[in-house]
Amino acid sequence: MRLRDKTALITGASRGIGRAIALAFAREGARVAINYLASDSAARETQAQIDQQHAPALLAKADVSDAGQVERMFGRCLQEFGHLDILVNNVSTEAREFFWELTEGDWDHVLAVSLKSVFLCSKQAALRMMARKTGKILNISSIHDVVPRARASAYCAAKAGVLMLTKAYALELAPYGIQVNAVSPGLIETDRTANYIRFGNETGRNNIQTAIPAKRPGTPEEVAELAVHLVSDSSGYTTGTTVYVDGGYLLNTCRLP
Prior knowledge:
The protein has about 260 residues and is of the alpha/beta class. The chain has helices spanning about 15-25, 40-50, 65-80, 105-130, 155-175, 195, 200-210, 220-230, 250, and strands spanning about 5-10, 30-35, 55-60, 85-90, 135-140, 180-185, 240-245.
């Protein structure tokens, strides 16, 4: 029970990696606030799975790119749980277009959800954690914080921003006993990537075999297990670090032809 008596707020926790992190935290004894926006049913399913572990869970519906909604969400979580120990900035989105086809609205939306939300939520968390001289902020980034990807320029720019915010926030918050780290997953098997990596897709299968030394996609649970470590007491001397969970993908980018 590495997170016994801890309270955590996880953005985008209704499915995928966010849900896996919420369930892992609950198994480790944490009280979890499940942020979501679009799918009430998916959020309730996450809550139901946490309930099965006999752990407290709170549904926290809010658009985390909106400052007012973020402030109200944190106020409600603090009213319910009393204090906040952990924030996981997990939510993100992308727009699959060449940059010259990308509208200004699409660009603004991707940056607001994937980067601005990190600023808004981290600010609210930090203001509360600073008073207690303790806390953990974990950003879920992507290998595309350092690896460019065609038809995903806005997403890559947002994740590169998350990489630097992690370092800057860690530097500013270290005097207050608050640690800020990031996890950058590679190809993870979620509903977002299912069409690409399902076994029936020969192109996807061949690409995985070629590009990833581990020769398989990762699972949300593998990301979640690392997240537990980075927000637990066992990572007490780690801050400003980004850990890549990619099956060795970045090693392949270093190979000569």
